[in-house]
Write a structure and sequence with these properties.
- It holds the Pfam family LAGLIDADG_WhiA.
- Residues 135-218 form the Sporulation regulator WhiA C-terminal domain.
- By secondary structure, this protein is α+β, with helices and mostly antiparallel strands.
- The chain has helices at residues 2-14, 30-34, 36-50, 70-82, 103-112, 116-166, 174-185, 191-197, 204-219, and strands at 51-53, 63-67, 88-92, 95-100.
- It folds into 2 domains: 8-114, Endonuclease I-creI (Roll); 146-220, no CATH class.
- The chain contains 9 helices and 4 strands, in the order αααββαββααααα.
- A hairpin with a 2-residue loop joins strand 3 (88-92) and strand 4.
- The radius of gyration is 35 Å and the shape is rod-shaped.
Length: 221
């Protein structure tokens, strides 16, 4: 029995899980908190034991390490902060959780514990997801701009047709006739394309000004 107790004491001491009175340590031994190499090794072991990372594909980044004791969770957070990581602690059922929520912190943590390949995989998924989102946003913006251009174009075309059916296009000043003809013949043209199609050096602002004049004339008919 004494041999068994001695072995238990020795194991707990080696793992630095017992104090001098053979009580169970609820926090992390100060010698680990003070030594960077030991700290890295401890974080690596803690993560392998009870750590999880949310799938970065979800877009909600989170790394968690579960602790039975609140003191241990707080010490883990302090240990992470030594490596410039924004660690936080939250109470959890049957214990507490030390967690990171920023993608950069999670990648840095993986570097701290020597998980280079995991860091690379995490970063690749993150970059691919962000790139995909950027492309989708750009496509949505382009689609919205196209829809806006088409709507404005159809309004002007309808007004030009109204002028043609009532007073005739030839009653307009020649510069308005030119813009009106290009707009009717090319409903998908942007303002810049209309400007490029005209002879001379008319700007987008100039084209817009003429189109507004045409719309105003039609509104007054």
């Amino acid at each position: 029995m004494f041999f068994l107790a001695a072995n238990v004491r020795e194991i707990l001491n080696d793992l630095q899980l017992a104090d001098s009175f053979f009580g169970i340590e609820m926090g992390i031994n100060p010698t680990i908190l003070e030594d960077d190499d030991k700290g890295r090794a401890y974080l690596r072991g803690a993560f392998l034991a009870t750590g999880t990372i949310r799938d970065p594909e979800s877009g909600k980044y989170q790394l968690e390490i579960f602790s039975v004791y609140q003191d241990h969770a707080e010490d883990l957070a302090n240990l992470m902060r030594k490596f410039i990581l924004d660690a936080k602690v939250i109470e959890h059922k049957n214990g507490a959780v030390t967690y990171l929520q920023k993608a950069e912190d999670i990648m840095d943590f993986l570097l701290v514990i020597g998980a280079m390949e995991c860091k690379d995989v995490f970063e690749e998924i993150k970059i691919m997801r962000e790139t995909r989102n950027d492309v989708n946003r750009a496509n949505n913006a382009e689609t919205a701009n196209i829809a806006k251009t088409v709507t404005a174009s159809m309004k002007t075309i309808n007004n030009i047709i109204k002028i043609m059916d009532t007073v005739g296009l030839e009653t307009l000043p020649i510069e308005l006739q030119q813009v009106a003809k290009i707009r009717v013949e090319n409903p998908d043209y942007s303002i810049q394309q209309i400007a490029d199609h005209l002879e001379g050096t008319l700007t987008k602002s100039g084209v817009n000004h003429r189109l507004r004049k045409i719309n105003k004339i039609a509104d007054e008919l």
